[in-house]
Predict the structure.
Amino acid sequence: MPERGKVVAVWLAGDGVVIKRYLGVENGLLLFGNDNRTHRAVFEAPEGSTVVGVAVGRYLKG
């Protein structure tokens, strides 16, 4: 598992791959945060979800 606070790619069961901030595991569920303030700050991933990778950089267009 990645270090807490790292940006990761997550396969959300039933919803595809998303980019989120890893917050840890609580009661057996993966917790993630959103950097986009228009979405919930913290959420639990559905059962069966998994981290597929850790971000190593950013691409800035322009």
